[in-house]
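I am writing to request your help with a piece of structural work I have in hand. What I wish to show you is a protein chain and, alongside it, a tokenised description of its three-dimensional fold. Could you please explain, in whatever detail you think fit, how the structure tokens follow from the sequence? You will find the record immediately after this paragraph.
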Amino acid sequence: MGHVSDAEVAEGVRLAKQAIEAGKEDPDTLWMAANTLSFFGGEHVTAASVIDRALTLNPNSAHAWRVCGMVSVRQNQPDRAISAFERGMRLSPLDPLGRAFTFGLALAHFAAARYEEAVQWLDRTLGEEPRYRPAIRGKAVCYVYLGRMEEARDWANRVLELDPGFTIARTSANYLPPEVLARYVDGLRKAGLPER
């Protein structure tokens, strides 16, 4: 995804709020709007209540559960996130967006400082999409926290092979809450990735 301007973000958030008003009875409208509010607007509390409404209307929406998981990660509620992602995966085991569930589970376990589990879910993600850069960066970071520095550096090298211009300064992981993001960035640094 390219850079989105502040004006585009503001417009997206405004439209999401309109959609929530207009689409009170439509669970798909609600989960999409909640995702926009959380991801672009940082309005996680509002997004969480909108998602709850979507899930009340349709408890079998795998995508609503996926967004519930992501909003929970952003609120640093990893256990709520894990149960949401797992429920979504059960509802849609062959989902074409399967990577979104497995990567979400990796993020939630990382947030909870369960690095072994995070690595397992990153491996599942890379099994589906071997060049998925956020998962490759995630492996470098998890190995730092597992004290496996040689592997951390190997994965950091893989990051740079796929993305030679990568720097920590311009990494965006706005799917993580600030305190978890700080730990993630520290891991990138310790894995040997360039600052600028």
In short: The chain has a mean pLDDT of 93. Residues 89 and 101 are 7 Å apart (CA to CA). The chain has ten helices and no strands.
